[in-house]
Design brief:
Elements: H1 9-26, H2 34-45, H3 47-56, H4 65-88, H5 96-119, H6 131-143, H7 149-174, E1 182-188, E2 200-202, E3 207-216, E4 221-229, E5 232-234, H8 238-241, E6 242-245, E7 249-257, E8 263-273, E9 283-292
Parallel strand pairs: 2-9
Antiparallel strand pairs: 1-3, 3-7, 4-5, 4-6, 4-8, 8-9
Length: 295
């Protein structure tokens, strides 16, 4: 096997794009750029599947380039929901940073596996993306004197159309206007999962849920949280009642409450107010609970 191989260029490009995506997502100064959206879409819709295909099918004869691209898209769409489902059963939950970390680690590991498997094959059999050959072929097609003028004109028009489409896509992504402002507000069970919510109590017994608030309002917001049982307010510590968050930051804490009276199918509401509206909840979630007398 030859020592100087070029078939790892595509894997290096994938790994570089993964790292670049992490930088644009995690660095606050870059997170507002349209490149964050573009790279994020690549990481979700293409890169994991491409790396996985490279690890599973390292030989040229396995698939051609177009089949690999299409299958990479399909596998990526399959991998991401499965990873999100698995994250839900961990202490990290379905959050931006854990999902980003999981996808990045998975893709980089698959790139490493693909590189290793290609190394085990003869150089002529290992899959590669012929970057240089493609560029030289395109140059020859456009600049060299061969074929009819009509063929050359069609080739040039095709390249211009592709470049114009890419430019239009970049413009749309970069000039879609101000991003939507919103706040995430949800509750998890005591194990930080979307299950096992405490719904049955004896009178005097306390319950605990995990409350998560994430600010995507593009400004600092002062929130007020309130818990109501059948429209009766329940006491909350001041540090959990008044919460101030900067943009793109989260607050997640266990919140304990004690239902003060008995009843069946009672509505337990978790209400979140923002600084501009104190009477109408900005966000709300609820549980239906039963409280019985202690036997």
């Amino acid at each position: 096997m030859a020592g100087n191989r070029q078939y790892s260029q595509d894997l290096l490009l994938v790994a570089g794009l993964v790292i670049l995506t992490d930088i644009f997502v995690l660095v606050p100064a870059l997170s507002g750029s349209f490149l964050r959206t573009f790279l994020g879409l690549l990481l979700v819709l293409f890169l994991p599947g491409y790396a996985l295909i490279g690890a599973l099918l390292p030989a040229k004869k396995d698939l051609d380039g177009i089949e690999r691209a299409l299958l990479s898209l399909g596998l990526s769409i399959a991998v991401v929901p499965v990873m999100g489902f698995g994250m839900n059963y961990t202490e990290w939950g379905i959050r931006e940073v854990p999902i980003l970390t999981g996808l990045s680690v998975f893709t980089l590991l698959m790139c490493g596996a693909a590189y290793y498997r290609r190394q085990q094959l003869p150089e002529t059999e290992a899959f590669e993306v012929p970057f240089k050959a493609s560029i030289f072929a395109l140059k020859a097609e456009l600049l060299e004197e061969h074929g009819s003028r009509a063929d050359r004109a069609i080739s040039i028009l095709l390249v211009i159309s592709i470049l114009a489409s890419l430019g239009s896509l970049a413009y749309v992504i970069g000039n879609h206007g101000e991003e939507e402002s919103f706040t995430e507000f949800y509750i998890l069970g005591p194990d930080r999962m979307i299950e096992n919510y405490p719904t049955n109590y004896t009178l005097g017994e306390s319950g605990t849920v995990v409350v998560d608030i994430t600010n995507y309002e593009h400004r600092n917001v002062d929130y007020t949280m309130e818990i109501r049982l059948e429209n009766h307010s329940l006491p909350l510590p001041e540090k959990q009642k008044y919460i101030s968050l900067d943009h793109n930051t989260s607050w997640e804490e266990p919140v304990t409450f004690t239902p003060p009276f008995e009843g069946k199918n009672m509505k337990l509401e978790f209400l979140l107010f923002n600084e501009t509206e104190k009477n109408v909840p900005y966000r709300n979630v609820h549980l239906w609970i039963n409280v019985t007398k202690e036997v």
